[in-house]
């Protein structure tokens, strides 16, 4: 690499900052979705870089399923305080209480589907015209074709046939009343890139990402954390193990990894050697081969 | 392998696009690259195995890896640009995977717009077809710096050198008429794996590099224009805070060239000049920045600058051209055909304005590579040369000199769709 070249992480960073600035310039009322997971932590870090020394000129929004690891919420609140950013929190529980959705029941019950309703409601209520998310194209086949600027109709739906071509550095965020965009600034990052970047930038993460002892059980080959709102099926039993999270989502459908990695270098090594994708640990994707795609059409992140 | 020192953080990024006719083996090749570089995880592999069985196949079908959306899976075709990722210790790769159907010129144009390299597949049994000509033409029109012609399915022609050489000279005959800089030829079998990642034992006569070696070693340092500093202003950063009461930074991505603190820059369109006071990237203060970095630039003087303006440096007499009348090679993307004399929104760098299509000079017949001045109806996937008149001056470089400041898109004012991509002549 000569002195006028930058490494792949710096180039991805430059691209993401460009996209985030484009959103701030092209939309009147954008928002950045924040889940407390590593992808949204990185995305928020990039947003701070994009506007420094000014504050990030849009709020964050957390769609709270109520099924969180408590560490995630604490991390979120500390981060907001430290950076002076504003985070709007919307509760899936409210959506249920208002009768707009019925809670799934059974052992595999998850609030993922309802989360979409809460999100779309919030976008409508707050009149957001662009919602940035930390989705990456390497996560799942259906995301491989996703644009940076993803157009949603007035029902918040995604039509794979009606997406705008994106060429060079030119993004088209024009829309009609009532429509909005989802924007994915870290589209081109892989899980490995995210970890390497966190390491390079020394970004602080919730403790969940590092090894800790936790009560877990196995379901369909995936290790799941014990949580108050989880029911065990017959034959499943709790064990104490050394684990860490690869993603942090709804506890009911996010698996954990057996691991003793307690620092970023070890995690990077683990990711490099790993044989299962991140989403492999997500029960919600296993439901059917096209699960992700179906949820995306409906307006899931 | 321990982090910062291991070289892990010292990888380059290379973007490439793949093109080929249906069944040339594109999906198999991509699957092979991902598989051999271990970018395929066990759970994905399991899913593919299951899907292969379901569709009646016996062997694991690597091509299934790259099939995306459900509807397409059912039809058994891919219809859009899909992005794939893999990495070797040297480089991270982004593949813009585009299908080979006749009607999808626009997809290849899209995938090609950001590519450092294009892989064009040719089936060894069929040789050069119209499609090969079209793909090579698009690669040259979009000025992709490196083209790799992969002659695939060599196993089906007994790995014969003559077959490879004949195809090579046929492609050379085409490319000599086009402005392509760097063309390479590799005989491969995507299915068996010959010369993809590992050297083939079946083609001793071939002394060149494998495809993977090329991808890892193509010189991409000069793919961006390094000479002419251009930075379109995207967003003006004004904290107006206690700590930074007077900070006024111009946020943007450097599209080409480089910038030092102290350099004199000119602001377009006003023409005012000033000196660079600071270059910031978050809490880092830089002495120097270059394409493709995103930075915030402060100037010594208070000049009224907003989004759509451009900071430039004059080097070797090169400055952007300022004009309201431009000649453009246009690729039409929309089902609704182009309206002659029609008005569209034009977007180029961070600038936006309206424009009118003054005239269509000719349509490119991309199968024969001849200009047709008589057929001027512009439909989806057509490539035409047009004259545009804009409502205000555009500052640009010719696309051949600068892909980032010489490119534009047209947007339909009623549907908001991106209807065309243009390269300024
Ligand atoms: N014998 C042989 N068959 C190949 C090779 N590459 C691809 N194929 C086969 O050609 C067919 C089409 O391949 P596919 O990758 O789906 O083509 P695509 O339409 O270009 O994506 C499949 O049956 C592949 O197994 C090769 O190198 N040798």
Taking Cα atoms only, what radius of gyration of chain A do you get, to the nearest Å? 19 Å
The CATH topology annotation of the largest domain in chain B reads as Rossmann fold
Oligomer: heterodimer
What's the CATH C level of the largest domain in chain A? Answer: Alpha Beta
* CATH architecture group name of the largest domain in chain B: 3-Layer(aba) Sandwich
Total number of domains of chain B: 3
Percent of residues of chain B in beta strands?
25-35%
Identify every distinct bound molecule in the structure, by name, code or SMILES: guanosine-5'-diphosphate
Residues in helices of chain A, as a percent range:
25-40%
Instruction: Tell me the number of strands of chain A.
Output: 10
Side by side, the strands of the main sheet of chain A go 3-2-1-4-6-5
Number of strands of chain B: 23
How does the major sheet of chain A shape up?
Answer: 6 strands, mixed
Mean pLDDT of chain A: 84
Q: What is the number of helices of chain B?
A: 7
Helical stretch tally of chain A? 9
CATH architecture of the largest domain in chain A: 3-Layer(aba) Sandwich
Low-confidence stretches of chain A: 281-295
CATH superfamily of the largest domain in chain A: HUPs
What do you see in this structure?
The complex is a heterodimer of chains A (301) and B (425). With 301 residues, chain A is α/β, with parallel strands linked by helices. Helix content of chain A is 33%, strand content 16%. Chain A has 2 domains: 8-193 and 290-298, 3-Layer(aba) Sandwich (Rossmann fold); 207-283, no CATH class. Chain A has helices at 8-26, 38-51, 70-83, 92-97, 112-125, 191-201, 264-273, 283-286, 291-298, and strands at 30-33, 60-64, 87-91, 130-132, 149-152, 180-183, 212-219, 222-225, 239-245, 255-258. Chain B is globular, with a radius of gyration of 24 Å. Chain B has helices at residues 26-36, 42-54, 70-75, 105-112, 130-141, 161-175, 211-217, and strands spanning 12-19, 82-87, 91-97, 117-123, 146-152, 182-187, 230-232, 235-237, 249-253, 258-260, 264-268, 273-281, 284-286, 288-290, 294-299, 310-312, 321-332, 343-348, 351-365, 370-372, 383-396, 407-411, 418-424. Helices cover 17% and strands 34% of the residues of chain B. Chain B has 3 domains: 3-223, P-loop containing nucleotide triphosphate hydrolases (Rossmann fold, 3-Layer(aba) Sandwich); 230-313, Translation factors (Elongation Factor Tu (Ef-tu), domain 3, Beta Barrel), CATH 2.40.30; 321-424, Elongation Factor Tu (Ef-tu), domain 3, CATH 2.40.30.10. In chain B, the strands form 4 sheets. In chain B, strands 7, 8, 9, 11, 12, 13, 15 and 16 form an 8-stranded antiparallel sheet that branches. The interface between A and B is large, with 68 and 84 residues. The site of guanosine-5'-diphosphate has 16 residues of chain B, from helix 1. Guanosine-5'-diphosphate is lined by residues 20, 22-28, 63, 152-153, 155-156, 189-191 of chain B. Chain B: Residues 11-223 form the Tr-type G domain. Chain B: GO terms for molecular function: ATP binding; GTP binding; GTPase activity; sulfate adenylyltransferase (ATP) activity. Chain B: This is sulfate adenylyltransferase. Chain B: Its EC number is 2.7.7.4.
